[in-house]
Design goal:
Blueprint (H helix, E strand, L loop, with lengths): L7 H11 L8 H14 L3 E5 L2 H11 L7 E4 L6 H7 L4 E4 L11 H13 L1 H4 L18 E7 L8 H11 L2 E5 L7 E2 L2 E2 L6 E5 L12 E5 L2 H10 L24 H12 L1 H19 L5 E2 L7 E3 L5 E5 L5 H10 L15 H7 L7 H9 E4 L7 H15 L6
Parallel strand pairs: 2-3, 2-4, 4-5, 5-8
Antiparallel strand pairs: 1-9, 6-7, 6-11, 8-9, 10-12, 12-13
The protein binds pyridoxal-5'-phosphate (PLP).
The site of pyridoxal-5'-phosphate has 14 residues, from helix 3 and helix 4.
């Protein structure tokens, strides 16, 4: 489905670390954090060992705790909701926009107003298994966690305006959107805290890894303590001020990240090129819908190349037929509320979030990376158009 885009610079950078004795908590991490902060133009960047770890720490910093409510999206990778559960809080799903798959700002406004009021009006937004007769008297609304799905920035201007009105925080899961811009503002500079991920299929990689960025210096200090066993800012090795974790990013990963970041414009340009090769070949296909562009996404950091398969063609049959031709493809995303764990814990059923479900039923991720050649894209498109045109997938 995807391959990392690595050069000799990256291999040398990792090898150089292995020639030292400093494999963790050293100069590479510090340099990577500084370079990342300056790339985005943000005051603080804190490296962690995965995007998921970063999201967990963002949830803690936002003061989200047991039974608190966080408005978020059901159309995402499961980590963006799991991080809320890690703190025993409640993800409040609202449905998404059909064009981008991102949170529907109108519904977010409606949900936030009802949830802020608490009591009866909040009930219909809660997960089915948590609804009660009289309702919680008090509002437990703490934050909005928006996800930039497939590289499209969420409508952060609307989300922020809504959050400010209710005095709650905005956490941005930007794990799929490095390099994207919303209304001219770089993803990572807009929310109270944003989290990026560097798994090998992302725009740049550290193997495993992530980065938290924020403008708040008190949160920066908290992230540094939390990622390293709750240690005090003084750095004293066996002084633990809070419940912490080991979410540190090691030096080999940081060196790889630093070398990738030096080539970030090249990495993004290659992905953009591959996406445009796909667009060119699939744009006039009646039964295939190519990725939407919006006026608010002023720059796209391509993460995956997603198409939608139109009826009467069956998406799952297309996946099977592509696999038969040796071409991997994937259904992104089966919505979170229908994942077995969420459905059984919270009582969700099909029909609860129809737009997210329709996207989950028709979306198809094609092979995509910055190292794909035009010939490879051509081959995928030839097979895809042949299959979609054949009777076996109706
Ligand atoms: C990749 C990703 C994450 C985090 O990924 P890690 O594998 O933990 O680095 C979180 N949210 C979304 C939407 C993602 O795509």
């Amino acid at each position: 489905m995807s391959s990392p885009d690595l050069s000799d610079d990256e291999r040398q950078a990792v090898r150089r670390v292995l020639e030292t004795t400093h494999l963790s908590m050293g100069p590479q991490l510090e340099a990577f954090e500084q370079a990342f902060a300056s790339y985005l133009g943000v005051p603080h960047a804190v490296g962690v060992n995965s995007g998921t770890s970063g999201l967990h720490l963002a949830v803690i910093a936002a003061g989200i705790g047991e039974r608190d409510w966080v408005i978020t999206t059901p159309f995402s990778f499961v980590a963006s909701a799991n991080c809320i559960l890690y703190e025993r809080a409640v993800p409040i799903f609202v449905d998404v926009l059909p064009e981008t798959g991102n949170l529907n700002p109108g519904l977010v406004r409606e949900a936030a107003a009802d949830l802020a009021r608490g009591g009866k009006s909040a009930q219909r937004w809660l997960p089915p298994s948590l609804r009660t007769q009289g309702g919680d008297a008090e509002s437990r609304l703490k934050a909005i966690l928006a996800v930039d799905v497939f590289g499209h920035p969420a409508d952060l201007s609307s989300v922020l305006e809504c959050a400010r009105r209710h005095g709650i925080a905005v956490i941005e899961d930007a794990c799929e959107a490095l390099g994207s811009e919303h209304e001219g503002g770089k993803v990572g500079t807009l929310a109270d805290v944003s989290v990026f991920a560097f798994y090998p299929n992302k725009q740049m990689t550290t193997g495993e890894g992530g980065m938290i960025v924020t403008g708040r210096s008190e949160w920066d200090a908290m992230f540094r303590s939390l990622r390293s066993q709750g240690r005090a800012a003084s750095g004293a090795w066996l002084l633990h001020e809070r419940l912490g974790y080991n979410y540190r990013l090691d030096e080999m990963s940081a060196a790889l990240g630093l070398a990738q970041l030096r080539r970030i414009e090249e990495l993004l340009a290659r992905r953009r090129q591959v996406a445009s090769w796909y667009n060119l070949r699939l744009a006039d296909q009646e039964l295939i819908e190519i990725p939407a562009s919006t006026t608010t996404t002023t720059r796209m950091g391509w993460f995956v190349y997603m198409v939608r398969i139109r009826p009467p063609v069956r998406r799952d049959a297309v996946i099977q037929a592509l696999a038969g031709a040796g071409i991997p493809s994937r259904c992104y995303f089966p919505p979170i509320h229908l994942q077995p764990f969420y459905a059984s814990r919270f009582g969700y059923r099909r029909g609860d979030f129809p737009v997210a479900e329709a996207l989950g039923d028709t979306s198809l991720a094609l092979p995509f990376s910055g190292v794909m050649t035009e010939q490879q894209v051509e081959l995928v498109c030839q097979h895809l158009t042949r299959i979609v045109g054949s009777a076996v997938v109706r």
